[in-house]
Every structure is written in C-alpha cells, then in structure tokens.
C-alpha cells in the first residue's frame, strides 16, 4: 500500500533461496493477487529475471525490476557478504535504508541478511539488539516465538525488549488487541531459572505490558498456546523451534508409514482423508514461513530458503501486515512507555 | 540381581507420585515379573503400604518393607525436604548411601530427590556436577538427552562430563557398543554458538570419545536420531524436552479430533487402528518414563509423578539396566580416560 511514504511496499531479493528466481516469482504472482495495491521493487540479475518476470502477468504489473549483478550464496560468511555491494540482497536492503521501500523480503542466507540489515538499515535507537521472531501453530491458535537465534547470548534487558517487540508483533500480524506474554523457563514457579530470567520477569511485571505478562512458561506451553507471545534468548529459542519442528516432522513421517502399512490402513486413510488434509493444511510449515528480524528501522522478513511459491507468498503476507499496520511505530511507542513507566531495566554488563 | 554386592537391587519410594502407593505397587508387580531375581527395599508408611503390598503376590515376594513415617509432598521446597529425616524418599536414599541397595527409584518431588541424592549419596569424586538424563523416541531409534534441568547454567567442562556420562548411559541402557554423540547448538558449523559450546566441542574432539563425537547438532536432530546421545545445558535441555513433548501432544490431540470429526473419519480410524495402535504404543510416553540423575555414587531414577503402573515399571527397568550393566563403573572409567587422554582445558578457540 504505497501511501505518501515509500514508493514501494517491499523490496524483494529475487536471487535468494534454493529455487530462485523461479520460486520467488511464483510467490510474487500469488502475493500480487492477495495485495492488489502493493508495489514491489524486485532486485536481481536482469538477464536471469526479466524474462521470467514477463511470464507472470500479475507479478509483472506489481513489480519494478532493478538490476543487481551479484548474488550471495547460501554458505557465504556474513563478513564476506558485507563486502559485496552489488548483491541482490544488498541492493534490496539499500532501497529500505534509502526510504524507497518500507521493507524487504529475502529467502537468502540468514546470517548475511541479519548482518546486512543491521549495518545498512540499522537498529532502532531505542533497541539494544534486534531479534528474530516467527509464528507457529498451537492448540489455541498462532503463537509468536522470539528470539530464534539472532542473539545466542542475552541479558535481562534484551529479554524485556524482546517482550515489547513481541507484543507489537502480535498486535500487528496476529491482529490481537491484548496479546499475553510468557517468559520461557525451566519451571513456572517464581524462583526457577537463573538471575537473568528472574530479573526480566520482575521488570516486565512492573512495566506497561505487566497486566498481559503471565510470568514463566515452559517448553510445552509453546504448542499448548498458554500465551500469545513467548520470549526467550536466541540459543534456547532456536533449539526450541527446531525441536518442535523436528517432533512434528517425526509424527508426519510415522503417520505416512502407518497409512501405507496395510490395505485396510490405506482404506482408512482414504476415508479420513478430508479431515487429515485439513489438519495437514493447518500444520503446513509454509503457512508459518517468514521469520522476522525486528527492532530495525524497516521491516525485514526472511523466507525459508527451501520454500516454494506458497511459502514465499506467505512471507510476503507477513511483511505486508507489518508495513500496513505500522509495526515499527508500535514498537517505538512500546519502548517509549517502557522507559517512562515502571522501574528501570536492571543494568547488567554484557 | 543381588550378587555379592548390596542386599537389594533397588530401594523404592512407595509414597512418591500422584497415585502412590497404589501405582507404585502395581508397577512393582510388573517389575517383579520382568526381573525375577531382583530384590526391592520398599520404603513407606507401613500402615498404608503393608496391606496393599500383601495383595500383590509377585511384588510381595520381591519386596522387603521398611517403615518411614513421613512423606515429601509435590510442592515442598528442596530445602524443606532436606530437613525431614523420616520421609520415604530420604530413607530409601539412605539405603543406597549405606550400601544396602544399588539404586533408588522415586516418583516424588524432583527437586527434593535431586537435592537429597546429591547430599546423601554424593557426587562421584571425578564429576563436577550430576546431570538429569532421559531417553526419547527418534526416527532412528532411542536417543539419550542430557542435561534436562539439573544445571540451568553450565560451563564447557560440565558439557564434556555430560558427554562422557551420556556415552556410558547409552552403552548401559540402550546396549550400544559405539554410541555417537552430538552437542546441541544453533547451527552445525564449527563457528556457531558461544565460547562455551565451542570449547566443549574442541575438548571432546581430542578426547577418547572423539571418534564417536559428531560435533554440533541442532534441535531437529533430536527426533531425527542424528546421534545416539545429545548433550546440552540444563536450561536448553529442559526446554527442548518439554517443547518436543508438547509438539507430540499437539499432534495426538489433533489426530483425535480428526478421527472423531465425521462418520467416514471414524471408520477410517477403525480400519487403520492396528497400525495406529502400534504407533501409539511406540510413542507412549510411559515407555520413556524414568529420568536418571547421573554422576552420583549410586543409581537414582526419577519416575514421572503422574505415571501409572506401566510407566513406573519402565522406570524400574531403566534402573535395573543401570545396576546390572555396571553403569557407574563405566562412567568412572570414561572420566579416568578423559583426564589421561587429550587436553582438558582447550588452549584457544579455533
């Protein structure tokens, strides 16, 4: 929705991900249908992208193509990626920094995207460190989990900031008016865990989001949906996300074996299929594609590198929600209230 | 198997857990059948236990009853539990410390069991801190995960010791001759994570278990079964275990909804039922009941407080495996080799 602000809703890295640019362009074809007013700045190698873009009618109408000669590979170190000024990822990020686009979506190298975004788009002045967030399925609806690995070591202040950012995220992307927040710990009692989580909990209880803060939650609360937002450090969050995904994958694989193990089991599958298909659709990892680097002066969404058109379109949906609902303004507002209300965040040397 | 050693294979806390002593006694009735040579020292309030024991023929033959007037409740703080000398848990642990029993099984308060065991049975002299370990399901068989919460903060040395203990555990309980070991991290590349995991990895590579050390693994590797043993700190391990359990529970609940959502789905369930039942049996949390506090001068197994007879019998199986296969001797041997082989403190991170 190009208002009086940036000319483009989003800059799109056409060359990121395993099946780029084809999967990206197919994703944009879907996204252009879902967001008819959106304008995309598509960045990539013109020779490789222009023809493919012309073949997608809706995407072609919604996109302006900008040439970028280079490409950041999946195994490139962030320090190396920073030196390549002509990469599609870099040129797309530059467009956000220059105010041409409100946000960027890339399915490329995660480490490179985080490093480039931090250096080029820059962290909000109110924020110590950005965090990586994502949405996952739970028994009671979608749940926001952060940090997922942007910060392997965090102090109490970082955790408090993640809670404020998670709150803004749940409002903007899940559309919740009063998202509840939990802090991940090894038990729900107040005395559990280390000083870091206990300090963070104390600060959050006294803050402007204190009434929605539900204290400590445990690993099983993520899929139980005990709270709408679950806050943790990047090491634990990364492990929790991948462990949960792994457990669901194990179940899917075992169910596939069950339903092909005998003729009656196959028939049983066919009978239960409509309901099983609805379940599969609801749990579809593509529906949860799009990890968001929050705390920057722009919207930055990382699509899974191995996803297809549907997954990429969903990552674009997430970015559009954030752009449309003034996500960064909400974060800023939350942080301002945090610094004017309640006691100070305990200062801890890093 | 009462050899020339302790008179009792295991001391059993009759009063621990939600359904004690009934579930414990039913579990012992099963265990006595599975381990006909085992002798159990059953500890609990005589007035409550004696009659119930007499009604279980096999258990009655395998058990000697010892009176303990008190009981540690589920919500009692460890410091309070330490002061009660006459609790069933304490008297059972005392029997291990006195050399009367080779190990103890309790379904009672986890924090109290850990605190009492550490103080009464004591940590092995070679070990800095004991760890809590458990077995879980994976696509390639059972996998050992530790630490699960005994130590919320760990250094590199603790992680290395956990690896040695996990190696011994996998040999004794899973019967593996060359268990592979992975160190949980946010990525599999050597440079990922913090100093702590990188130092631990370096030490492990140069140690006597270096040839079985597969380096860093990620959350999804737990259920993928990438390695037989997965080592992490107690905070991350606790969250990972509960997140994985939560994800599996979500899937079970959703499948129940699927199979009751329509008449054809119900029929489908009936047709696929034998295969689904096998899957359910294989994934049954009771089959994985029994977390083990390892690194002490005796075998200490914590059964889930809410489990039934089958679950408690499985916790007894785990303890019997450890007693029978000289688990603690294996750990001692491993630690001795660790201190005589490779460097203990890494010189510099790579």
Assign a percent range to the helix content of chain A.
40-55%
The strands making up the biggest β-sheet of chain A line up spatially as 3-2-1-4-11-10-5-6-9-7-8
Major sheet summary line of chain A: 11 strands, mixed
Catalogue the unreliable spans of chain A.
Answer: 342-350
Q: State the largest interface.
A: A-B, 60 and 60 residues
Radius of gyration of chain A: 21 Å
Question: What do we call the CATH topology of the largest domain in chain A?
Answer: Isopropylmalate Dehydrogenase
Strand content of chain A: 5-15%
Q: Which assembly state applies to the chains in this document?
A: homodimer
What can you tell me about this protein's structure?
- Two copies of one chain form a homodimer.
- With 350 residues, chain A is α/β, with parallel strands linked by helices.
- The first copy, chain A, has two domains: 1-122, Isopropylmalate Dehydrogenase; 125-290 and 327-350, Isopropylmalate Dehydrogenase, CATH 3.40.718.
- Chain A is built from 13 helices and eleven strands.
- Chain A has an eleven-stranded mixed β-sheet with strand order 3-2-1-4-11-10-5-6-9-7-8, with helices on both faces.
- In chain A, strand 7 (181-184), helix 8 (195-205) and strand 8 (213-217) form a beta-alpha-beta unit.
- Chain A is globular and about 60 Å long.
- The model of chain A is unreliable at 342-350 (pLDDT under 50).
- Chains A and B meet through helix 9, helix 10 and helix 11 of A and helix 9, helix 10 and helix 11 of B.
